[in-house]
Amino acid sequence: PEYTITYFDVRGRMEHVRLLLSDQGQHWKEEVVTFDSWTQGDLKKKAVFGQLPGFRDGSFSLYQSNAILRYLSKIYDLYGKNAKEAALIDMANDGVEDMRVKYLRFIYQNYEDGKADYIEKLPNDLKAFEQLLARNGGGKGFIVGDQISFADYNLLDNLMNHQILAPNCLHDFPLLQAYVARLSARPKIKSFLESDAHKNRRINGNGKQ
Ligand SMILES: N[C@@H](CCC(=O)N[C@@H](CS(=O)(=O)O)C(=O)NCC(=O)O)C(=O)O
Fold first, then answer.
1. Whether the predicted model's global pTM rises above the 0.95 cut
2. What backbone torsions phi and psi does residue 30 show, to the nearest 5 degrees?
3. Would you say the CB of residue 52 lies under 6 angstroms from ligand 1?
4. Secondary structure tally for the chain: helices H, strands E
């Protein structure tokens, strides 16, 4: 397949898709959009919702990061084994999306003044994922079922971003701590995380993390 990611030079809302593609042994092209070309060119007008990321699979074009994630999950069998598992995966992914929206609002609108409060309140959100993991076979595997799903890549990226913001944020969540270590040690994920492409890409457009 000919995959292309069209996005700003950030991890942002696409690093979990990059984790998924890497873990599934896939390659992709990066079409990096600068803020100038975004405001002066016609990319914004062409984007369905006037926003990035965009994703192309050959001539097939898609926007909305969670739609991109779900599209790929159907190609690589990352959506659980049945309707119930798929629904639980959707529930977990929607929970990650809620955390992401909160994180992005904090990063872009209230970083300096809101940092202490955001970090203090973090356990309230993390606890939900610790409990979700615990309910799935004692939390030694994936967030739902006994195979990796697209929600795992999203949760992993989200947790790693929060460990950069607050290095000890998983201190009281042993299952999540082991989960991050376990998933980031998967060989293809490990080499992606060690790549310059990943390491040199900022998490957020304003450089705050
Ligand atoms: N729901 C969309 C949100 C996309 C979005 O907010 N994109 C931002 C960039 S980022 O927050 O994803 O980094 C954007 O295009 N901003 C520029 C603009 O809105 O003109 C998704 O999940 O893809």
1. yes
2. -100, 120
3. yes
4. 10, 4
